[in-house]
Amino acid sequence: MARIAFTRHLEAVGPCDPVEYAGATVGELIQAVAADYPRLKGYVLDEHGRVRKHIAIFVDGALRPRQSALSLPVGETSEVYVFQALSGG
């Protein structure tokens, strides 16, 4: 199973340490985690089910575009990290 983790900034809504969940895509992984962490879905996804602008998703070490991240396939050894994207200066 793929492993998914959320940055410490999101620890109130999801697991910070990598945990295994079943899913064939990033979107399926997020849905699986959201079943255990109900607040997660509303924080990571907008009302249309798209990744919110303040969220960055990395799959196997590479930043993926928000617009297509949910449909990306994941394998048994994939690692997905969900970060709160910070801005400012």
What does this structure look like?
- It contains 3 helices and 5 strands; from the N terminus they run E-E-H-H-E-E-H-E.
- The protein has 89 residues and is α+β, with helices and mostly antiparallel strands.
- It has a single domain (2-84), classed as Beta-grasp domain (Ubiquitin-like (UB roll)), CATH 3.10.20.
- Strands 2-1-5-3-4 form a 5-stranded mixed β-sheet.
- A hairpin with a 2-residue loop joins strand 3 (55-59) and strand 4.
- Helix 1 (26-36) crosses helix 2 (38-44).
- The radius of gyration is 12 Å and the shape is globular.
- The model has no long low-confidence stretch (mean pLDDT 93).
Short summary:
The chain is α+β, with helices and mostly antiparallel strands. It contains 3 helices and 5 strands.
Write the layout of secondary structure elements.
Blueprint: E1 2-6, E2 19-21, H1 26-36, H2 38-44, E3 55-59, E4 62-64, H3 66-69, E5 79-84
Parallel strand pairs: 1-5
Antiparallel strand pairs: 1-2, 3-4, 3-5
Helix pairs in contact: 1-2
